[in-house]
């Protein structure tokens, strides 16, 4: 009686004798084997490990690291890289991920070998008799294998593994058979029929090598882009989420940076399904790059000013201009605590401090209490907050309207970036005393060392001497065109020496570093720069973008 696990040949098979050879049987040759409890598991193991002979498997493993690095690659290509990634570092990451993918793949294969395979059990379950008939040009298999007749010329790959043989055909399908139904002559015949018997590993290895070569080339190219984007040792400090908007100001005496920002309240969004916002003031220690305090603010921080010698910080907020609800939050810079909340009203845009008098000024583009010469309210106005007080004086109407405002402490003057001019205000009387004509609107202004730098979103820059109140020179941004839509200026800043003017272009994902002497410019790639300032101690450029503060050495 035939027992499970034993071969059952239907012919006497002399050693080394092939069918139709002297001393050997004639075709067809029948072989049979009764499967035991381990046969199906043996075939499953062989089937699963044989997958690693497939070019598709190695291509997949070599591609996985690129998929895992895709987000980082996209950020680098979009100029959003926050830290320097050298080509070698990125290539190292790729190969570490490749090794991890390989280990995970091998582990997954090991787990699959322990699982049942219904397809194999259909013809190799314990007690099942497997019959294979070998013809001159084909072999007949049990129907449960998915084949009835398999011609030898269809065979593309043949592998013996762990007491089993794996046969693959040109259709991509395969079948696993116990070694017992593949006698010596059949083993040789099947191996000869495989199209690349001596190069069975060449195809998958070459495929993996090709994919890895392309991947390394891509990663190297991205690394070159990352190195260019880095601009030399940037440091990024996380403040809020990427949807946050913010403004910044330095306290050089204490080595601190104040960041007033508005961010989405993601927890409230998830709970209520509506978009809600929170506003806060973050205090950053520049020595450690750590956020040392966070203070709540009214909605919509618009501007911030620091009186370093007076140890006071002023944050202007304007959440709903239609309701005239702008206000100034006053913070003690020594303790980083809120000392006052001063209502201003009107559509307020800027707050600035006179470091000599320690007075703070709030520039409003429309204030109901700023009554002009014809008795009409809603004019541009300038509100004064004296040091140590908790109220703002009634705004003084300004005949000079504008967009931006700055204070020149040395001469006690206020400067307004206005329509086709730079307005000059005597801060002792809060009256406009002069207007310096420009050929364009001064959308943003910056001041240092007696020079005013007026910038237009249309691509124009004017350098104004504040003492003589005259335009020193006017020039275009490099690459700008007359009448263009601009880059979407979000802020400008000037270095302490007045040599480099920085222009943040929110729409263009860049910051222009313009040489004020030659007019030439470098482009710093920064995604969505919302606000910029310059460290008065080091001269480093500081950018608030996508919820983080990035320090760019200069």
From TrEMBL:
Name-wise, this protein is YVTN family beta-propeller protein
Which UniProt keywords are given for this protein, alphabetically ordered?
Answer: Membrane, Transmembrane, Transmembrane helix
Supply the source organism for this entry: Nocardia acididurans
Q: Which InterPro entries match?
A: Host-pathogen_enzymatic-act (IPR051200), N2O_reductase_N (IPR011045), WD40/YVTN_repeat-like_dom_sf (IPR015943)
Known SUPFAM superfamilies for this protein? Nitrous oxide reductase, N-terminal domain
Q: Where are the transmembrane segments?
A: 57-74, 86-108, 205-227
Superkingdom of origin organism: Bacteria
